[in-house]
């Protein structure tokens, strides 16, 4: 009799169909509760009266009597039919599902089937699943508020189009009315099925309490531990109820609580039923219906039993269980998660080390995954609806990431070692299960034909399996084996079955074990979906993100955060063919969450990497030479027994103390800008310090590349290349811009006021000793080391930007100088013609205005050009070190070019050489800048005249420098205190650039300047009482600096001995006072001195060997 009813096939088909219908109902509810997705027919004002009319008259809708309300539907009947057709068909699916389930349940009752989860596991599970799915479908149907309007609108449109009502509409309408209160109706329906349902539920009375243990009981039993009994580590894990061991406790609770709602009579008559029901009620406040739909089971049960006669005693039981859950359940579940976190960690480590154990201990893996999944889902559904409790922290878990990570790790291990699992279980099936099963079958006294055929096929199927098939790469498909076993359960579980399965528990045990072994062969992924599916998190996005945020705040959990985006890849497992509309929505949600998690993980990773680099930079900075002074001073003071530091002073940590063990929390550092530029105070890090910091960062990144697959070289090159430009790819200022601004506004501006002095001897800028303490030491930034570091940091591109800004400042000064020349044009023309006539020059000198202004501006230009020369020299050294193969051809090409040749070719070569940091006789950048400032109105001859007069203006203004007390020459610095030695650089470069633009010979034109200057300076000696002779010798030195570059000493109006004497004077009289009396007098162009010639030679050569003075 049972054969023809096909109970097994119907249970499988209806369970799958019911799940699809349930998902459809959930989807319809979401669509119609979302104002953005709700169909337009329900939102348009013109249809408002029609919807109200249908809801009021449902299900007896008279389209003729209500034509005034339904006119809008008649106008758009085709659109309504098309838009609501899928929803209408979904409700018909519910009706058909109800009919088929109702028929099947009646057939099962008629066959007097018995259900025992430990014997006929698959039959019992499918039966209870069907009941819960059936109840869930009608509960979800009742949650769709617009179902009557949907069906009513569709039927009206159908009747307008076809002239008669849809055939299914009357039954649909009746079903909606009946299930307005679903639990009451369902309990009435299941009255006849109470015996079967209660029997199936009571079969859980041993399993569920055994599975629903506390963390302490798990710990005492050493659950999931492979190391608890090393001797049995290789023994296969076997038990009488293999599938029951990884059955979800959430599923069992859903069976128990919903089952006893539908068939509640045994709660008053059977103590086992009541104990089982109470135990389930103490497990939590909420049950999952589908996706994010949950039942507040205590409230539902209380309301339901409150309306039933004879169940008043159950109300206190429900309240007591609810109080227990609120008080204790959160802490109990937290302890379970803590236990599982450590248990899974141990299990993962053991299986990673010995993956062959996945064969005999595969059951442990699925148990661990199932237990963990239950705890995660419990936390998620309760975190979404946190009850009023004194310990809300029990519903948050900042360490959940570790549990999720180990779950994913176990899944990965199963996928990686699939061959190991298959090989082990294939041999187990063919060499053990088949033999034992054959012995059991042979010992049966009664075996009907149909059952005999099935059991014989079991033995033959298992016996035929061979390692050859596995090694050949054949795919196994044992679904037919498992379906036949379900059929056999159905045949042997009826009341009048000739072969009763309950009489052969060994057969059930072996077949249940063999069924698990077959799943290890071909459906590990399906089993993972049953035991480790967390796709429901897709519908609890807010809680999922909150759990991620909590885990990311815990430093120890950050290493496990990758589990969250991996879980997003499993969301597609919750899709069902009956609801294809969800596919795109779930894919988008999966991608959205995955991207947000990955972005946050990337951000935190970057933060950690930068903290590592910053820490390495700090450690490297402690070892810089500048910090040794304090240590040396402390040691020296201690040796000299000077005063010790005050008690309040904290001793400075020495380099290396970071290697001592310290608390992890101390390691957290604040990320700072390494350049540390402050525009208001003009403070910035030294280039050498910044370079050292960047090198420390790069070293750290290179060490990190050993652990992470990143191209550090490419990363660093891209970043540093952007820093050589004025702005980076985001439009932010770079270190090129920051240092350019600082050198222009901070250093050179003060140097132009002589607060900072250019020191040729040490090739740096130094601070003047003033009353106001300056915010920085110029020698720390503009020395050889600092400028080399600057060139290393910003390279030729960055220095080109710096040079362009320097040229802009120079050109602005040149423009002002031209204006001064124009103002004194007539006087300068006369002076140019009469420079050898002292009387005429004396009169003209009085008419000349702006001498100090000219010298001041020329000094500023000289300071800028001196700084640029230092920068160019630093760049040349860096280029020589990094790319000598490029520098050698450039140097050769530069040496082959002469300024007297084709000026265009010369300038193009000089431009290339200048970009590489090589010094040039003519500055191409300055030539270009001066050429660009030429106006259309001025002719080349006019510009040439102005340039010549400018040199005359400078020459005749030199005597005024003698009046400045800061004009004396400093032996230590190799220059003057007011930077006037930079005049020589300014005159040389400006003259060369301007005469090059005007196509004139620079050497010839400079002769006139030297004649005028030497003549004017010689005239100072004619009156020894004049104040101008005070620093005359220091001014003579400037004149030598001017001529040194061009080697035109023969053009001076006085002999070299005058220069020698000047050097002697400034070196020995002013600086050391070694000679007390010097008599000097002019006799034409002859200068005599009463000092031994050898000492004079030695004094001049000591400090200025680079001037090339030959005695």
UniProtKB/TrEMBL annotation:
Q: Where is this region: Disordered?
A: 638-658
BP term (GO), one? cell migration
Domain of life, source organism? Eukaryota
Any one cellular-component term (Gene Ontology):
SCAR complex
Compositionally biased region (Basic and acidic residues): 646-658
* Pfam families per the UniProt record, alphabetical: Nckap1
Spell out the protein name for this chain.
Answer: NCK associated protein 1 like
Species of the source:
Cyprinus carpio
């Amino acid at each position: 009799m049972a054969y023809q009813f096909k109970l097994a096939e119907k249970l499988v088909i209806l369970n799958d169909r019911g799940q699809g219908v349930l998902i459809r109902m959930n989807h319809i509810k979401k669509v119609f509760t979302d104002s953005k997705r709700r169909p337009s027919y329900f939102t348009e004002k013109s249809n408002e009266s029609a919807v109200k009319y249908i809801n009021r008259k449902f299900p007896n809708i008279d389209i003729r009597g209500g034509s005034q309300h339904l006119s809008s539907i008649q106008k758009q009947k085709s659109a309504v039919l098309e838009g609501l057709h899928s929803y209408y068909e979904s409700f018909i699916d519910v009706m058909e599902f109800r009919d088929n389930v109702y028929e099947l349940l009646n057939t099962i009752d008629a066959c007097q089937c018995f259900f025992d989860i430990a014997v006929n596991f698959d039959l019992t599970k499918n039966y209870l699943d069907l009941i819960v799915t059936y109840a869930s479908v009608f509960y979800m149907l009742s949650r769709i508020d617009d179902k009557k309007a949907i069906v009513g609108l569709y039927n009206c449109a159908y009747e307008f189009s076809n002239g008669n009502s849809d055939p299914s509409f009357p039954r649909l309408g009746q079903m909606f009315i009946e299930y307005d209160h679903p639990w009451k109706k369902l309990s009435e329906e299941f009255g006849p099925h109470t015996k079967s349902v209660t029997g199936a539920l009571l079969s859980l009375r041993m399993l569920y309490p055994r599975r629903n243990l506390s963390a302490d009981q798990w710990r005492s039993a050493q659950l999931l531990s492979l190391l608890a009994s090393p001797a049995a580590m290789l023994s296969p894990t076997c038990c009488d109820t293999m599938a029951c061991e990884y059955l979800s406790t959430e599923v069992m609770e859903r069976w128990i609580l919903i089952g006893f709602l539908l068939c509640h009579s045994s709660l008053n008559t059977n103590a086992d039923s009541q104990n089982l029901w109470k135990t389930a009620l103490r497990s939590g406040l909420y049950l999952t219906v589908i996706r994010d739909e949950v039942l507040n089971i205590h409230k539902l049960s209380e309301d339901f039993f409150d309306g039933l006669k004879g169940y008043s005693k159950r109300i206190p039981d429900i309240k007591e269980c609810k109080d227990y859950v609120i008080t204790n359940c959160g802490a109990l579940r937290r302890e379970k998660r803590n236990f599982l976190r450590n248990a899974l960690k141990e299990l993962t480590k053991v299986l990673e080390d010995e993956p062959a154990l996945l064969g005999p201990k595969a059951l442990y893996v699925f148990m661990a995954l199932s237990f963990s999944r239950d705890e995660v889902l419990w936390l998620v559904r309760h975190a979404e609806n946190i009850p009023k409790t004194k310990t809300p922290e029990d519903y948050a878990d900042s360490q959940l990431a570790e549990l999720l990570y180990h779950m994913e790790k176990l899944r990965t291990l199963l996928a990686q070692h699939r061959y190991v699992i298959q090989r082990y279980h294939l041999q187990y099936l063919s060499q053990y299960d088949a033999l034992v099963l054959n012995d059991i079958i042979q010992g049966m006294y009664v075996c009907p034909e149909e059952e005999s055929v099935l059991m014989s096929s079991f033995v033959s199927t298992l016996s035929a399996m061979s390692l050859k098939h596995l090694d050949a790469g054949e795919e196994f498909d044992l679904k037919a084996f498992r379906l036949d076993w379900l059929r056999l359960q159905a045949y042997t579980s009826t009341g009048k079955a000739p072969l009763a399965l309950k009489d052969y528990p060994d057969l059930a045990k072996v077949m249940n074990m063999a069924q698990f072994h077959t799943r290890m062969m071909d459906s590990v992924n399906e089993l993972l979906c049953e035991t480790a599916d967390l796709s429901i998190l897709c519908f609890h996005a807010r809680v999922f993100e909150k759990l991620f945020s909590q885990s990311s705040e815990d430093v120890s959990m950050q290493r496990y955060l990758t589990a969250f985006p991996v879980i997003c890849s499993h969301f597609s497992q919750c899709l069902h063919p009956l609801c294809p509309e969800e596919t795109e929505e779930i894919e988008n949600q999966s991608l959205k969450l995955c991207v947000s998690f990955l972005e946050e993980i990337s951000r935190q990773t970057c933060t950690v990497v930068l903290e590592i680099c910053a820490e390495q930079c700090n450690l490297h900075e402690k070892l810089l030479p500048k910090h040794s002074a304090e240590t040396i001073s402390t040691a020296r003071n201690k040796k000299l027994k000077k005063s010790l530091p005050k008690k309040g002073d904290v001793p400075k940590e020495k380099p290396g103390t970071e290697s001592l063990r310290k608390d992890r929390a101390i390691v957290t550092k604040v990320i700072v800008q390494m350049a540390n530029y402050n525009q208001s105070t003009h403070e910035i890090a030294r280039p050498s310090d910044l370079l050292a910091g960047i090198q420390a960062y790069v070293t750290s990144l290179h060490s990190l590349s050993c652990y992470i697959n990143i191209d550090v070289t490419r990363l660093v090159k891209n970043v540093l290349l952007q820093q050589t430009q004025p702005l980076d790819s985001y439009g932010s200022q770079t270190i090129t811009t920051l240092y350019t601004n600082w050198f222009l506004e901070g250093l050179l501006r003060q140097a132009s006021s002589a607060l900072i002095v250019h020191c040729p001897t040490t090739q740096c800028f130094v601070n003047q000793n003033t009353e106001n303490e300056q915010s920085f030491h110029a020698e720390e930034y503009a020395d050889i080391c600092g400028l080399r570091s600057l060139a290393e940091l910003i390279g030729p591109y960055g220095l080109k930007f710096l040079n362009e800004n320097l040229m802009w400042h120079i050109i602005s000064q040149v423009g002002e100088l031209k204006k001064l020349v124009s103002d004194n044009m007539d006087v300068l023309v006369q002076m140019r013609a009469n420079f050898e006539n002292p009387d005429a020059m004396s009169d003209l000198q009085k008419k000349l205005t702006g001498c100090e202004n000219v010298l001041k501006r020329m000094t500023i230009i000289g300071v800028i050009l001196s700084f640029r020369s230092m920068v160019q020299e630093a760049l040349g050294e860096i280029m020589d070190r990094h790319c000598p193969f490029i520098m050698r051809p450039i140097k050769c090409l530069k040496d082959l070019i002469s300024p007297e040749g084709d000026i265009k070719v010369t300038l193009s070569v000089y431009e290339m050489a200048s970009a590489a940091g090589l010094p040039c006789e003519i500055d191409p950048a300055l030539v270009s800048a001066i050429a660009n400032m030429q106006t259309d109105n001025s002719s080349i001859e006019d510009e040439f005249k102005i340039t010549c007069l400018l040199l005359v203006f400078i020459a005749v203004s030199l005597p005024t420098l003698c009046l400045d007390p800061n004009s004396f020459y400093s032996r230590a610095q190799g220059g003057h205190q007011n930077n006037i030695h930079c005049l020589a650089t300014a005159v040389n470069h400006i003259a060369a650039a301007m005469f090059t633009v005007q196509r004139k010979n620079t050497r010839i034109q400079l002769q006139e300047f030297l004649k005028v200057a030497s003549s004017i300076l010689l005239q100072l000696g004619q009156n020894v009482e004049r104040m101008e002779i005070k620093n005359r010798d220091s001014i003579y030195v400037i004149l030598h600096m001017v001529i040194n570059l061009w080697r035109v000493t023969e053009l001076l109006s006085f002999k070299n001995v005058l220069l020698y004497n000047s050097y002697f004077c400034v070196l020995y009289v002013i600086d050391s006072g070694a000679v007390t009396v010097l008599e000097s007098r002019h006799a034409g162009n002859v200068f005599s001195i009463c000092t031994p010639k050898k000492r004079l030679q030695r004094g001049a050569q000591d400090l200025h060997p680079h001037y090339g003075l030959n005695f």
